[in-house]
Apple domain-containing protein
Amino acid sequence: MKGVAIFTIVSLLQVRAILGIPAALPQDLTGDFFDGLPEPQPTGAPLGTETNGPPVDISAIIDAAVAQATAVDAPGADPALTDNSEPTEPEKMRKRSPSSDAITPSGYYLVFSGLNGATQAPSYLTFKSIPVYDPNLCAAKCNSISGCRFFNLYIEINVHGQIIKCSFYSIRSTASSATNVGQWRDSFRVTIKNSNGYAKYQPYPPVDGFTVETLGGAINGKRLAPGDPDPYMGYTSIEASDPSTCAIACEQKTAYNSRHPSIQGTYRACNFFNFYHLYKNGEGYRTICSFYLIQFNSSYATNHGYSSNGDTYTIAESYGYTRVVQQGDGGIVAV
């Protein structure tokens, strides 16, 4: 049984090394970096007469982030421990319409206007039907949803008439994601029109117990001196654009490590995390939290993306969060 127990704490990166499989360096953003994570599926509000989507389950999102952050054999684990058809391009409306007359809500900017397709993106949260075509109604709902950063306002024409919908997302999308152009239902063609996209200007909020710094890329943390422990503690991909979820995962990562100290009687404590969005070909793709023993400033934010298999991945909205009360000596705590 000891052999089984030992094997379960070997990280994916260590397994790759044992098997002779090339592995990317822990923080080098390449096509291998996010291997093992499920591919995000573009999603949007459903067609039909429903008036509201389900509430966003923040507790489930946090639980999933913590589970991944504390699993020693999950993608992004701390290495020290362990139908694709081409979408139809939406067409522009060429005459005055509700979409062209709509007033952009305060705190938002217009990303696209007047398309004949609704947004489909992996960062989908929920949707709501509204009585009139007014982006301010969508903005009010988005502001009430934790992690909402973008909404799509559009009119759906179905057999029952027209429905005005707002769909909500945790990452900004662009016109190229407006790929839901409707479908045939029985003998009626459901269509989309007057589709507008709006993104928040609002910077990411502070997190209790952490200070925050805006970064120009993702952190590539290094040992500051020979003999220092590897400061990188892995990453987790979260479903809501909310850095407080990363903070909870960071704290739980430390708590987990404290319950499983090394044979030297020490454990690794999370004192810093990097929150950022990964974009694939310009579209919101993943929200990432990466964790570190120690703080790194903007001079270490040198990861700006990569290209793989014809796709381009870029980093945006990157922030560094430093724990106000630092734990341990360089992040190493003696029991």
